[in-house]
Amino acid sequence: MKSKTFDFSLYVITGENYHPGRKLEQVMEQALRGGADIVQLRAKDAPKREVLAQARMLRDLTARYQVPLIINDHLDIAQAVSADGVHLGQEDLPLAEARAILGPDRIIGISTHNIAQALEAQAGGADYIGVGPVFPTGTKPGRQAVTTSYVREAAERVTIPFVAIGGITLDNVDAVLEAGAKRVCAVSAIVGSAEPAETCRAFKHRLRAFAAMA
Ligand code: TZP
Ligand code: MG
Fold first, then answer.
1. Which of 12, 13, 38 has the most ligand 1 atoms within 8 A of CB, as the residue to mutate?
2. Binding pocket residue ranges, ligand 1, CB within 6 Å
3. Quick one: which ligand is closest to 140's CA?
């Protein structure tokens, strides 16, 4: 699938540790049913063949919902399953090398933790950036929260799509939207929720409410 003309407001990332006893496929199917606009496979601890199997499953699932699939870290797996793109951190393969490998049609997202990284990724041709972690989060332990002040700065200065991430829940999402985010991303709040579809619907409701106010 090629979907360079993508847009999204709710970005859902996998996190298998958050749903013991429930299958990844079921949880992500529920997230899609609830309105997830884009899905990322992020499997830091799994052996590569397991990541590949999960990527194949999510490729089929996201295609059914016509939602882009992004693979964290593994360009080769993204290519093997014809994912829509990859997401890379500051210590991963640099954007220019990833672009040279993937070509212009794939989505490349870059994690950023300050405005200098954001502007660098933007100038380098990233399709979107992550802004975070906004709040402290057990999904990325030990990383300093950037707070909503970086969200505010990104809203003022970043012209490509940016997505706020890190510790975002239904209880604090309004503060992130008030700071100017139009897109939010969550792992634990969604895949760890007892009702991922309902939780996604509630996030979408908040996103729509803020979009209507803008
Ligand atoms: N990058 C910045 S924060 C984060 C990632 C992958 C973790 C987000 O997970 P959660 O559970 O929504 O805080
Ligand atoms: Mg990475």
1. 13
2. 111, 130, 132-133, 137, 139-140, 165-168, 186-189
3. 1
User: Strand 184-186 and strand 162-165: pairing?
Assistant: parallel
Q: Which is nearest to 72 in space by CA: 7, 154, 133, 91?
A: 91
Q: Which residues are catalytic?
A: 42, 111, 140
Query: Residue type for 154, please?
Result: A
Tell me which DSSP letter residue 5 carries: S
**CA–centroid distance, residue 48 to ligand 1 (Å):** 21
Of 9, 55, 10, 56, residue with least CA distance to 31: 10
Cα 96 to chain center, whole Å?
20
| Ligand 1 atom nearest residue 132's Cα | 2
pLDDT in tens, 137-151: 999 999 999 999 999
What ipTM, to 2 d.p.?
A: 0.98
What would the pLDDT profile of 150-162 be if each residue is shown by its tens digit? 999 999 999 999 9
pTM of the entire predicted model: 0.97
Say if strands 10-13 and 128-131 run parallel, antiparallel, or are unpaired: unpaired
